[in-house]
Write a structure and sequence with these properties.
alpha/beta, globular, Aldehyde Dehydrogenase, Chain A, domain 1, Aldehyde Dehydrogenase, Chain A, domain 2, 431 residues
């Protein structure tokens, strides 16, 4: 059974129960011409107004990840993303001459089916906004744990009206290109039906979800954009730990750890600190102080019984070992697990970070695989970090960013220029 939470700019207090996706796909396709008629600039203005509404309401700002989202939705950022992904925004609106009598246009691919993960509640908004600007229609399956957040975040679009070049354009029209649904991730029949309806499949999730969904039947013309399971960590180069800015670096890194309760693929699980005049125990103490300071700004996250037991077991392991050390809060607010074994640890999450000292940051190169998404960087030596980036990105790693920015959604993501993937590049040659 499908629960339809939103369709054709209508939000249902009680989800509409449907046996198949036929009516939803039909409704979305009815609105393709209308969304296609909207200039890209008008859509960007609507999204910019949407950003202002989210920014001005404390209710929305209290949702985890929304302060980042608000900045991402701003007009200047959307235009920057379009330049990065499509080279020119104008490709969305008309055939643009790229050589003598040779023209190119970025046409929508059609129906984008989003199979979303539930670890980051704001994630669907990022993908939906990009797909809308590229004039696709969207069927989005969101896990029940985060569907309410997505619905509440979309509602403000409904009342937006902007004037652009003497014409009125409506946020409600953008909403008509979206349907938000939920059904069991184990329902093979409905997963197959959704897969076969797609011109683009956007698959976000863990290994089991990606493996299951990616092999479902699909159109031969369907494009897959897959964001599978990834792992992230951070490195502090000695120029950073010996710098006067080290406290700020630890404060920024604390935000990376705390955000999304370390559930995001971009959340750091391990911090490697290069040997310097600052010893590992002193560094751990500084990180502890930063975590205590930054945690005061975040609502307390409830930890389930299984996760709590896992943290307690890890604490016990490190407390009893002569080779390891630990700094932690009296409750389960944060845990810093200290050792010298150069390896990537299994995530514990819930503000639990492994801290390891290395002789040289280049020692982590041997740990790199294509499953590494983000490395957070603290350094005052740009030339050394560029050399480091060249080494690690050869074997994996999609993003290297300053600490404090690890969870900030950007393009490319997982090595993918998303908007370039969800358009069809069409050539007109008049030679």
């Amino acid at each position: 059974m499908i629960g339809c939470f939103m369709l054709g700019d209508k939000f249902y207090e009680e989800p509409k129960k449907l046996q198949s996706l036929d009516a939803i796909i039909e409704e979305l396709n009815k609105n393709r011409e209308t969304i296609y008629s909207y200039p890209s600039e008008a859509m960007i203005e609507i999204i910019n107004e949407y950003s202002k509404i989210l920014c001005s309401d404390r209710k929305f700002l209290s949702y985890e990840g929304v302060p980042f989202l608000v900045l991402w939705l701003k007009k200047d950022n959307i235009k920057k993303l379009l330049r990065q992904d499509l080279k020119k925004q104008e490709f969305l609106d008309d055939f643009i001459e790229i050589a003598d009598n040779k023209f190119m246009k970025a046409q929508p691919r059609g129906v984008v089916c989003h199979f979303m993960a539930g670890n980051v509640p704001t994630l669907p908004i990022y993908y939906l906004v990009q797909a809308i600007i590229c004039r696709n229609v969207n069927l989005c399956r969101i896990p029940i744990v985060s569907i309410d957040t997505a619905i509440e975040l979309l509602k403000p679009l409904k009342d937006i009206v902007i004037n652009f070049r003497g014409e009125k354009y409506y946020g409600s029209t953008l909403l008509k290109s979206i349907s938000i649904i939920n059904f069991s991730s184990n329902d093979l029949k409905l997963n197959t039906e959704m897969s076969q309806a797609a011109d683009v499949r956007v698959i976000c999730g863990g290994e089991e979800a990606v493996n299951t969904l990616s092999v479902l039947p699909k159109k031969t013309t369907c494009k897959d954009v897959i964001f599978g399971p990834k792992y992230s960590f951070a490195v502090f180069e000695k120029s950073a730990t010996e710098s006067l800015k080290i406290t700020k670096a630890f404060d920024n890194f604390a935000k990376d750890i705390i955000s999304f309760d370390q559930r995001a693929c971009s959340s750091p699980q391990v911090l490697f600190i290069e040997k310097s005049t600052v010893g590992i125990n002193e560094a751990a103490q500084m990180l502890s102080e930063s975590l205590e300071k930054v945690l005061k700004r975040y609502p307390k996250v409830e930890i389930n019984q299984g996760a709590a037991a896992n943290i307690i077991n890890k604490r016990g392991e490190y407390l009893l070992s002569l080779e390891k050390d630990i700094i932690c809060s009296k409750d389960l607010s944060y845990t810093i697990l200290i050792d010298k074994e150069i390896m990537l640890e299994e995530p514990v999450q819930h503000t639990t970070i492994f801290l390891k000292e290395v002789e040289d940051i280049f020692e982590v190169c041997k740990l790199i695989t294509p499953r590494i998404q983000t490395i957070g960087i603290a350094s005052e030596n740009n030339s050394r970090i560029i050399n480091f980036a060249n080494k690690v990105s050869l074997h994996g790693v999609d993003r290297l960013v300053k600490v404090g920015l690890m969870n900030l959604y950007d393009s490319p993501w997982d090595g993918i220029l998303f908007m370039s993937e969800i358009v069809k590049w069409t050539i007109l040659n008049l030679n």
